[in-house]
Amino acid sequence: MLKLGTFDLHQLLATLEIFFLSKKYQLLQAIIFFVVGILLAKLFTRVVVHLLRLRLKKQLLMVVEKFCYYVSLIIVIIISLERAGLDLKVLLGAAGVFTVAIGFASQTSASNLISGLFLFGERPFVVGDNIEVDGVKGEVLSIDLLSTKLRTFDNLLVRIPNESLIKSRFINLTHFPIRRIDLILSLDYRENLERFRQILLKVVSETFLCLDEPAPKFVILGLAESGVEIRFSIWTKKENYDLLKSLMYEKILNMVQQNGLLVAYPHRVFIQRFDDDKKHSTHFSHPIEPQHEERKV
Amino acid sequence: MDTLIDISKLFHNQIWGQYSLNENESGHWRIGPLQIWIARFRSEWRIVTNSSEEHHDTTIQVKVPYETATIPKRSEWTRRYCVERTEDKLYLIPALADRSIVVRPEEAFYLPSKEETVLFINSVLWCKIFVGNSQYPKLIDTIPIYHLSDTWFGPSSIEGEICYAAKTGALQRLDLVRLSPYRVITKVYLKNLADNPLLLERIKLPVTNLSLYHAENGVFFTESVVLQREKMGQQVRFSLGRTPKEGGRLKRITTAERALEGHFVSRAMHTLFG
Q1: DSSP state, residue B171
Q2: Are the CB atoms for B90 and B4 separated by under 8 Å?
Q3: What is the rounded CA–CA span in Å between residue A201 and residue A212?
Q4: Smallest CA–CA separation between B161 and chain A, in Å?
Q5: Who among B151, B158, B160 is closest to A212 (CB)?
Q6: Which residue of A135, B44, B185, B229 has the fewest C-beta atoms within 10 A of its own C-beta?
Q7: For residues A275 and B232, what is the distance between their CA atoms, to the nearest angstrom?
Q8: Which residues from chain A sit within 8 angstroms of residue B149, using beta carbons?
Q9: How far is A209 from chain B (nearest CA, A)?
Q10: Which residue of B has its CA nearest to A207?
Q11: A178:B151 CB<8 A
């Protein structure tokens, strides 16, 4: 006899055998199987994830986790239903009838599911990447079977159906290790372009977040109404993009003020011109100061 | 590899090596552009660092003990390390950079077909701070003597790696190299076996594959490096040579972070030449 204190284990096992083989308590058995089955399914999933966590990437591990859990759950449900006395052949027969209805109803879900599989295969982004979809920017939290979830930078959860992702254009902001920052600047026409370029290059050389290579580029975009439009492009590591963009504008502003440079801004200069008899006057305005003698108003 | 205690004995009369600080005592070290203040408390090591832009500053100064109250109190320069109980031994040990370094020759040049040349690359050291009395003291901080800016090395913006950009150029003569106790010299043999000239504008030096050596005159060297452009043109062979004879008798300080067995051949020239 195997005793655990005053408890007889043999007797317990015998009682359990009678209970589970008896047809009297089928519903109760089914419920017990279901509850225990769910716990075992979760345990099984955790064990699988634990064993594979070092071998698989985060994204694929999530897929394996969900696959293991749902497959286990289906098995548990089938066993529980069988335990409850349900004839599964009848169920399968009925399933055939429901398949058509379910098929129509789940078109979207099936499409999302298949789109999800394509996303896994194509891997345009992975968990942890920052992407922009339809104007929404965020970090990819998970790529699930039916949808992809983003966390926006102001901490909102966005759920995007995989079908929408496959069909739409999205931007992966962190796919490549480095990014280019385009700073759009305007310089007053009265200023020296070369001097401004040197000042910008000096700012870059003093900023460690800027990469030496690819080298910064100074490009004149055009001659606008109030000044010269310039695009100054610098490169940085992807994680420093936002920080450096703000920092560069701040530093350029400081340098411009320290060096007394004139930055272009929309403005009007009104000039009043007097005719010979000083009776009539002509007013006109233009953005650039006149060179000849006229009285500025 | 020798213990830190053995390595420290090499640096007689230099800034590197072993120091002792009593509780509530501090020290000040100036290694060229870098200033380090280290204060020891009962359960805390406080390290304050400041690096200037004077990359050619060769000032070396040690003041131990130092007036703790005069240590700068700027929070952005300060790092605190809390332990159960501090011990009196402290080590300042030189180390190589943790990433590859991209170097430019003084002026870009062509290496003709079937020709070879030698360049001397002078790069900055890092300072590792160890504490503790045991045979294996603990590393608590690693500081570059001066900040190197980041740069991208690769054929395009999507293929390559982030490296450091060296502030000094590669030179063909060792006597032109500015020696200092916080720089390390690497002798690079460049060979072009291909049928067309090789334009050299930038070279990536995989520093993490190199070991650090110390000469009796206080100069640091690594083993020499051989970069050979293969006959096929796009392949480059990278291998390690012996320590340069210009260094005389050298003693190894640290081994390579990523040891290289023999050599590696890159199928793309752009991984080492830019």
Answers
A1: B
A2: no
A3: 11
A4: 8
A5: B151
A6: A135
A7: 81
A8: 205, 208, 210-212
A9: 7
A10: B149
A11: no
CB contact under 8 Å between B149 and A214, yes or no, is no
DSSP state of B273: B
- A 10 A CB-CB count for A48 gives 17
Collect all residues with Cβ–Cβ distance below 8 Å to A192 and sequence separation of at least 6: none
HSE-up (13 A, CA, CB side) for residue A184 = 5
Query: Which residue is associated with the tokens 């890092």?
Result: B126
User: For the segment A45-81, what is each residue's pLDDT rounded down to a tens digit?
Assistant: 999 999 988 888 777 888 888 889 999 998 998 888 8
CA distance B91 to B72: 22
Residues 6+ apart with CB under 8 A from A258: none
β-strands A147-152, A136-143 pairing: antiparallel
Gap between the Cα atoms of B61 and B71, Å rounded: 15
What does the pLDDT average to over A201-224?
92
Nearest to B117 by CA among B184, B186, B192: B192
Helix (H) or strand (E) holding B128: strand B126-131
Interface confidence: ipTM more than 0.85: no
Structure tokens at A250: 């701040």
Alpha-carbon gap, residue B77 to B82, rounded angstroms: 17
Taking each continuous run of H as one helix and of E as one strand, the counts in chain B are: 1, 23
3-state percent breakdown (helix, strand, coil) of chain B, nearest 5: 10, 45, 45
Q: Looking at beta carbons, which residues of chain A come within 8 Å of B147?
A: 208
In angstroms, the CA A169 to CA A226 distance is: 36
pTM: 0.74
Long-range CB contacts (within 8 A, 24+) of A105-108:
A108/A161, A108/A163
To the nearest whole Å, the CA of A212 is away from the closest chain B CA by 5
B35 φ/ψ angles, rounded to the nearest 5 degrees: -115, 135
Per-residue pLDDT reduced to its tens digit, B17-40: 899 999 999 999 999 999 999 999
Residue pLDDT, tens place only, A154-190: 999 999 999 999 898 999 999 999 999 999 999 988 8
Amino acid letter, residue A264: A
For residue A99, pLDDT over 80 is answered with no
**Tokens of residue B261, six digits:** 């067995």
Mutation site for B-interface testing, chosen from A213, A217, A233 by largest number of B Cβ within 10 Å: A213
Distance in angstroms (rounded) separating the CA atoms of residues A75 and A56 = 25
Alpha helices in chain B (DSSP H): 4-8
User: Edge-to-edge, what's the strand order for the sheet holding B101-103?
Assistant: B149-153, B161-165, B101-103, B203-205
Query: CA quadruple B128, B132, B137, B140: dihedral positive or negative?
Result: negative
